[in-house]
Amino acid sequence: MTNIQITDQPLNMLSCIEWAMDPKCGGIDAFIGTVRENTKGKKVLRLEFETYESMALDEMKKIAEEVLQKFEVYKILIHHRTGVLQVGDIPVIIVVGAAHRDAAFVACHYAIDELKKSVPIWKKENI
C-alpha cells in the first residue's frame, strides 16, 4: 500500500506514522528531513523547494512500487513539501511499515536515496 503526496502545506509527522501503523507491521521506520540552520559553515535563512509536480509524483510512485517489490514491506508513504520553508520546517517524510525492522530500515534508506537521485524537486538555499 502506498501514500504519495506533494503539497505546499506543512507535513504532519504523527499522521504519517499513524498511516503506516498496521497489525502486520512489527517495524515502522521513518525518515523526517528538516531544514537545518547551516550548510557548509554558512547560516541558512530559508529553503525554497520547487518541482515539476506531475513528473515528481510519477517518480515517487515508481520508488514506492520498487520498495514494495524489492523489500518485504507492507506500506510506504512518501510526502514532500514545496514552497518556502524556514529552519526547523519539514520538507520530506518517508515512512515504511514492515513485519520486521531490518526490512523497514533498509527500505526507508533506499527510498530517500532514490528520491534525492531521481525526483525532480529542486532546493534553493538562501544563506
Structure description:
A hairpin with a 2-residue loop joins strand 3 (38-39) and strand 4. The chain has one domain (2-126): Molybdopterin biosynthesis MoaE subunit (Aldehyde Oxidoreductase, domain 3). It is α+β, with helices and mostly antiparallel strands. It has a 4-stranded mixed β-sheet with strand order 1-6-8-2, sandwiched between helices. A 3-stranded antiparallel β-sheet has the order 7-5-9. The chain is 35% helix and 39% strand. The chain has helices at 13-20, 53-70, 101-118, and strands spanning 2-7, 27-33, 38-39, 42-43, 46-51, 73-81, 83-86, 92-98, 121-126.
End-to-end C-alpha gap? 39 Å
Tally of separate helices: 3
Q: CATH-wise, what's the superfamily?
A: Molybdopterin biosynthesis MoaE subunit
Helix and strand element order: EHEEEEHEEEHE
Question: What is this entry, summarized?
Answer:
By secondary structure, the protein is an alpha+beta fold. It contains 3 helices and 9 strands.
